[in-house]
Amino acid sequence: MHIYIGGAHNGKREYVRTALSGETLQWIEAGDLSRLPEPESGRVVLAGLETYISSNHEDEESAMKDVFRFIEAADPDRLVIILTDIGRGIVPSDPHSRWLRDVCGRLNQRLFREAGRVTRIWYGLAKELK
């Protein structure tokens, strides 16, 4: 599993498209987590987990189960996850936004532990973290 993380509009998707341009990519927006990756269809790129969690979950446990159910069904050697780093800056005053920031922080920690590679994208520039 290779994770790309960066701030909003920092060029993550474009970087992944360019870096994997010679491969077949199956893009799955996280709003469609029920759609499992097709076997042997190239790389699976999962994006939008933060939006999915915010819109579909009210508790951390069910959010984690949903995300990891998808990840466990995918081949880790073919899986690419694009994450938006929402944990920096001012802590939101809105309770739901604070909850989302906390859940995504814990989710990202777990994903980073399990990932073979982690790359930070900062305005189109990549830095390997793991």
Describe, in plain words, how this protein is organized in 3D.
One of its GO terms (biological process) is cobalamin biosynthetic process. GO terms for molecular function: adenosylcobinamide kinase activity; nucleotide binding. With 130 residues, this protein is α/β, with parallel strands linked by helices. The chain has one domain: Rossmann fold, CATH 3.40.50. The chain has four helices and six strands. Strands 2-3-4-1-5-6 form a six-stranded mixed beta sheet, sandwiched between helices. A hairpin with a 2-residue loop joins strand 5 and strand 6. The protein is globular, with a radius of gyration of 14 Å. The N and C termini lie close together (11 Å).
Beta-strand percentage range: 15-25%
The count of domains is 1
So what's the overall shape? Answer: globular
User: Strand count, sense and closure of the main sheet?
Assistant: 6 strands, mixed
Spatial order of strands in the largest sheet? 2-3-4-1-5-6
In the CATH hierarchy, what is the architecture at level 2? 3-Layer(aba) Sandwich
Give the CATH topology.
Answer: Rossmann fold
Q: Helix tally?
A: 4
Mean pLDDT: 90
CATH superfamily: P-loop containing nucleotide triphosphate hydrolases
Class computed from helices, strands and strand pairing: alpha/beta
The helicity comes to 25-40%
Instruction: Spell the H/E element sequence.
Output: EHEEHHEHEE
The low-confidence parts are none
